Every structure is written in C-alpha cells, then in structure tokens.
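Methods — Computational structure assignment.
A single polypeptide chain was analysed. Its primary sequence is given first, followed by the predicted tertiary structure written as structure tokens.
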Amino acid sequence: MIIASRSQLLLRRVREHGPLALFLGLMFVFRSAWADWVTVPSGSMNPTILEGDRVLVDTHAFGMRIPFTQAHLTTGVDPVRGDIVVFDSPADGRSLIKRVAAVPGDRVALADERLIVNGEPASYAPLDADLTATLLETTQAEGPRAFEESLAGRRHAILLLPRRPAAATMAPITVPDGMYFMLGDNRDNSADSRFIGLVARDRIVGRATRVVISFDPERHGLPRGGRFLQPLN
C-alpha cells in the first residue's frame, strides 16, 4: 500500500512537472547546438564590443555540435577572415571572443601594429574620436586611438592604446590546416593568438552576430543606449 502510494505520488509529480523539465531540457540543448549568448567581461574587442555587452552567438554556423561537447554532427561552413567568433581557449579552456585574422594556409605577421596577411599589408584610416567616447573611463585614460582596418575587402574598427606596452610586431607564421589565428580588435589589450597560440577548428563554438543588450559596469549596470540588437561587423 505504501509502495503504491509512493508510485502514484511520483507519477503525479511527473505529470505536473514533466512539461517544464522537458522545456528546460530543450532550451539547454538549443542553446548549446543552435544559438547562445555570452556576456563580455573584458575590453579585448573594443571598440566593436564593449564590456557588459550581451552578444548573440550563432552556434550552428560552423556545424551543429553534440550539446556540451566539441563533437560536431554537421560540418557547416568554415570561419573566414573577419568573422567574430567565440571559442574555447587552447590555453585554459575559457570562453573567448575574438576576430579571425588568418585562416588555414595563410601567412600572417604584424609589423608595428600593422596586420600583414599573405604579403598584403592592411591599410588604416583614423576614425572619429567620438567612437572612443563609448569606452570605459579607465580605457579612455590610456589615450585610445580608433582606426578602420581594411584588408582583402574586409573592413572593421580597431583600437590602439599608445600608452600601453604591447606585442606590436610578430614574425611571419603559416597557419596550418585546421587552425586559425585570432586577434582582438583592441590590439594592445587582448590575450589572443599572439599569446595563447592558434585555435583549432573544433574549438570554435560559433559566430557572434549582434549585441542583444548592453549594461554599463561603470554606471551601476544600467543599460547603454544605442546598442540594442546592434549588428556586429
């Protein structure tokens, strides 16, 4: 009688909470295999991405993965130069967001902050100083300078911090098959492939597509204006 009562209670709990548990399970699977969002805590992608941005990530663009693993069910497309991607760091496994600067087969180098890919140097044009007004006050104190970097038909903003020592020059390397060279848009404050090494294809989680919403850590976490659903270049 006691066993029967417990069984009935268990069945009742399953009926009551089963749909919610199923919904939550499907949401976890969806976030892992199809789309997700990440909170950006650092300024390594300034001025494109700011501290406190919540960024939407297309996690099936480069192939659908088995939830919570690095194993792929589909191949998807390969990342291309200029893509902003989220990946698991080869140094410590942390989730990082950077821009693809070189793909397999590319020969990449840096010369006094200038990116060079396959012998072609990027060109740079200064951007309006108003762009740096959106940065945190601690970053503005370092005298930031924003430029548009243009290379092989792809253009995007980068940030230089002249007062900060940085790895401004790097000898040429050839990116091997299955590997990618990542750079932060904030070239003088980014732990990217210059420091953590090349990133394997299966470590790349997805492509960052837009800022969903942004909260300013220097303004008590209040939402920033003008960044709601802002597409990422």
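Note: The first strand starts at residue 35 and ends at 39.
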